[in-house]
Amino acid sequence: MLRPLITSLCLALASLVAPAGHAAELTPFAGISAGGNYRDTSNTNSYRIDHGASGGVSLLWDSAPDKGYELLYSHQDTHIRDVDISLQLDYLHFGGLYYFQGQQENWSPYVAGGLGITRVATPGRDSDLLASMNLALGGRWRISEQFGVRLELRAFGSLTSSTTLIECGTGCRIEVEGDALYQVQGSIGVGYRF
């Protein structure tokens, strides 16, 4: 339910931004996310989150020739290793992007970052909403005036609650704790400017 809402929000924002005279770019992307672990408070076990496919969409609109604002949504379906618990991670962030050489070059490296929320969902329990941030390094290769390819490496950090209970099956409960959940995402996307 969250994914269609995010897509609709991005399209609505795009329609508001374009008439105001600011160029906007909508970029669906796919990639691989890795990292993140939980520590069981009842023993010394540590459970890692499996790396795997992720994807999402970015809406970028220019505020100046070399910078802009970005609304980012990213999703990953994964598992917690050793206990085979399904896990969904959703990031919704708002932030900015700065091109080191402006956007007019065929290859435009950039740095980006943002703040927002992370939704962590496991079967059999309510999802958690966590405060989070991201930092990215990337580059945009301009194919034409309207189309470009973005390559990006982005790090996410989410503040976790002090103790979380995860159900892992009949009679299996893991009580985990930690201050933060960290992930790294490498992605490629094709953007359309309008």
Oligomeric nature of the chains: single chain
Helix share, percent: under 10%
Total of DSSP H or I helical runs spanning 4+ residues: 1
**Using only CA atoms, what is the Rg?**
18 Å
Based on helices, strands and strand pairing, what is the structural class?
Answer: mainly beta
What fraction of residues sit in β-strands?
Answer: over 45%
Q: What is the total tally of β strands?
A: 12
Question: Average pLDDT value?
Answer: 84
What is the molecular shape?
elongated
**Main sheet makeup:** 8 strands, antiparallel, barrel
Write the H/E string, N to C: HEEEEEEEEEEEE
Spatial strand arrangement across the major sheet: 1-4-5-6-7-8-9-12
Compute the separation of the termini in Å.
27 Å
Unreliable stretches: none
Written overview of the protein:
- The protein has 194 residues and is mainly β.
- It contains one helix and twelve strands, in the order αββββββββββββ.
- An eight-stranded antiparallel beta barrel has the order 1-4-5-6-7-8-9-12. The chain has a four-stranded antiparallel sheet with strand order 3-2-11-10, with no helix packed on it.
- A hairpin with a 5-residue loop joins strand 2 (37-40) and strand 3 (46-48).
- The mean pLDDT is 84.
List the helices and strands and how they pair.
Elements lengths: L1 H16 L6 E11 L2 E4 L5 E3 L3 E13 L2 E14 L4 E15 L7 E15 L6 E15 L4 E13 L3 E5 L5 E5 L2 E14 L1
Antiparallel strand pairs: 1-4, 1-12, 2-3, 2-11, 4-5, 5-6, 6-7, 7-8, 8-9, 9-12, 10-11
